[in-house]
Every structure is written in C-alpha cells, then in structure tokens.
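TICKET: design request
STATUS: open
ATTACHED STRUCTURE:
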C-alpha cells in the first residue's frame, strides 16, 4: 500500500504519527499547500517511508500528477471538506482508492455526500473503492451503529450520534479544538434528520436541545441538532426508523456562531478589503489559534458515541450507548497531539490497515456501515490499545 495523505494540519499530523508505528504500508506521502507544515511533520516523524510534497488540494490536475508520480494506491483526505471533490475526482481519474473523514459539502437541494454518491456506479464498475466518512464522527460512530445492528438489536428504532466533551484551553476565552471552518459549516447549515416514514429532512440550526450524560467524568452536556454525515450514511446500510446527530457545543459556542452569522463572517465568498479579496470565514480561521498547536494548553476528555434504541436480541426493549473517550493528557503524552484530532485520525488508520491486509474489501462509494465492525474494533484494541465502551441505558429514560 502506497498512501498519499493530503493535509498536514492537526488530523494529518496525527495520522502520520499513528501510521509511523505500523508496518502495513510501503510509503506514506504527506501533502499540504504549506511547505513548512510538510517539512516540520517529516522532521518529527523521522521515518524513511515518509516523503513530502506541496500541493494545492483544490487543483485536481496537480493531485492526479502526484498520484501518478508516486504510484499511489490509496489517498487519505484529511483536510477541510471543501476540497473533497477535486481529490475524489483525481482518484477517479487515476484509479487510486479514496478515503476521507468528511464528505462533499451540502448546498440547497443537495445533501452531504450527494456529489460523491452520484458517481457510485462508475466507481463500482471500475472495481474502485471510495470509503467515505471514516474519521471518528462520521467513522467510528458508524462502526458502532453497524455493531449494534449486527450483535445487539433485532429491531432498531433510533440511531442517535451524541458527541460531547469537557475540554478547556488555558489562556483563551474562545479556542475551538477542531477546524473552525468545518465547525461553522456543519453548525450553521440546517441540520438533517432521517426518518423511515419521511426520508431526509432538515430542521433549524441548534434545534431540539437535550442534556446527555457522557461517561468517564465528562458529565451532562447540552446537545443540539447539527448537520452531519452519519444521518446520510447510516440509513443506507442499517435498517432503523430514525437517525439523528447531536453535538454538545455549549451555549457560549452557539452564541459565537450565531454572532458570526449575523455579521456575515461565516461566508466563504471573498469580499473586497482595501483592494484584497478575503473570505470572511478564512479570516476568522486565521485569527483563531490553530487547533493543531494548542494541545499543550488543553485539558479534559472528548467522547464520540452512538446511542441506539429498539428491541434487543431477546425481543425486549433496549437502549445502549456505544462510545470511545480520548483523554487529552494521554494523547499529548503518547503522540504529542491533542485529543480531538488524534481521535479523528486513529480510525482511518485502522481502516487502511484492514484494507491493506484484505480483511476489508469492496468497491463503489461506501460508508463504514458497509463493512464488518468486529475486525475494526478488534484491531482498534490490539494495534492501538483502544477499547470501546458499552453503557446500558434505562429503558424509557
């Protein structure tokens, strides 16, 4: 396996550090538009299997050229989702297999991932795999949904992704632990919900607030509806009645996002600023701290999980929460990266290894739900020391 990993930010760096400890690949090529990021990452990894290139991920031709020059077999897209389609199409043109952690962006009348699923038959006909949404959310959360459907439930009423954390960043009143560009996109777009009787439909941003009790000391966090890929992916492979995604971002974060929207600072279209064309959202991202650089200032844990309700294998009503918790103190000590980006990066590495060894295989545009969950969860523990939690919930609670 020869991997091209596009993006040398937080998730891209964490991916390289995790990959460096594994032997399933022959070469790992790091690509980013900032040469200094690539150089710094290669110095930190210090492994002859790793090489680096500079690329504009929005330029499909340039991505194609790198794939050909380095005889890449698999492309891992770990940058902002605005670059999904140029990279996805570069893989389609060159025959390289594709993996991402976030899918193509939505727009009026077009859901997350629709642009990728529109090419599903072509990828299938070529025998080429696009494994989409293989981060933590989407990604591990979808693996949990598959596990629940296969091993815990006979009928599923709802699959509800619930994400929460108690992370704080010393010295900052406001410092997102993940890409603010992506966070603005998913939080200010209309959230999507799926119901078997209605299909996909949208609701208002930050709707249906609820307090969810997160494990391992994180505690109760208010969660709200947010646009996310799991709602698009889960119903394609898992028989259930409803799918939701709720994110515990907190009232202060919600107020900041609403203010950015009121001021037009969430817009991506460049505006003229004293003769310079500047994207308001890019400006916001530039003035906030880079999530990849604040790990040493962060404290706390982050939890990604899947809440499932329905009938258990015995026919009785059942509710469970399957989850994974990452402790920032541990990820910083063990890998030198903060918990949120490490938790995201870990899962595509597990998936790539399963593909390299032939345990997972497939063709077309697929989500994590299309694969057997057990080998994934077993390798997650055996190779990376990460076990998932399973909490039984009181029925009717």
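STATUS: resolved
RESOLUTION: sequence designed for all positions
ATTACHED SEQUENCE:
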């Amino acid at each position: 396996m020869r991997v091209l990993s596009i993006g040398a930010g937080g998730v891209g760096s964490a991916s390289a550090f995790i990959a460096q400890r594994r032997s399933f690949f022959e070469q790992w090529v790091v690509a980013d538009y900032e040469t200094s990021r690539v150089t710094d990452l290669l110095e930190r990894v210090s492994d002859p299997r790793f090489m680096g290139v500079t690329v504009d991920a929005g330029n499909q031709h340039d991505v194609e050229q790198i794939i050909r020059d380095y005889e890449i077999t698999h492309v891992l897209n770990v940058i902002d989702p605005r670059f999904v389609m140029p990279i996805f199409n570069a893989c389609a043109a060159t025959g390289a297999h594709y993996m991402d952690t976030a899918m193509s962006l939505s727009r009026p009348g077009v859901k997350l991932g629709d642009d990728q699923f529109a090419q599903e038959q072509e990828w299938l006909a070529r025998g080429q795999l696009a494994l989409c949404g293989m981060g933590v959310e989407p990604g591990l959360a979808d693996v949990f949904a598959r596990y629940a459907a296969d091993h815990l439930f006979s009928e599923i009423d709802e699959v509800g992704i619930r994400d929460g954390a108690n992370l704080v960043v010393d010295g900052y009143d406001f410092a997102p632990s993940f890409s603010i560009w992506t966070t603005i996109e998913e939080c200010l777009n209309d959230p999507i919900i799926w119901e078997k009787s209605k299909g996909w439909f949208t609701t208002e941003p930050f709707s249906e607030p609820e307090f969810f009790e997160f494990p391992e000391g994180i505690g109760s966090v208010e969660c709200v509806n947010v646009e996310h890929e799991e709602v698009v992916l889960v119903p394609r492979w898992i028989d259930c009645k409803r799918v939701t995604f709720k994110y515990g971002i907190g009232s202060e974060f919600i107020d900041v996002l609403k203010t950015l929207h009121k001021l037009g600072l969430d817009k991506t279209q460049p505006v003229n600023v004293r003769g310079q064309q500047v994207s308001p959202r890019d400006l916001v991202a530039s003035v906030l701290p880079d999530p990849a650089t604040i790990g040493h200032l962060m404290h706390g844990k982050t939890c990604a999980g899947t809440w499932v309700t329905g009938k258990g294998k015995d026919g009785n009503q059942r509710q469970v929460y399957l989850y994974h918790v990452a402790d920032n103190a541990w990820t910083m000590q063990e890998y030198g990266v903060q918990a949120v980006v490490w938790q995201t990066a870990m899962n595509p590495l597990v998936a790539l290894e399963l593909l390299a060894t032939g345990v997972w295989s497939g063709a077309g545009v697929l989500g994590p739900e299309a694969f057997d969950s057990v080998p994934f969860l077993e390798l997650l523990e055996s190779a990376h020391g990460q076990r998932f939690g399973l909490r039984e919930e009181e029925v009717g609670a």
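CLOSING REMARK: The longest helix spans residues 339-356. The chain has two domains: 2-100, 140-339+386-393.
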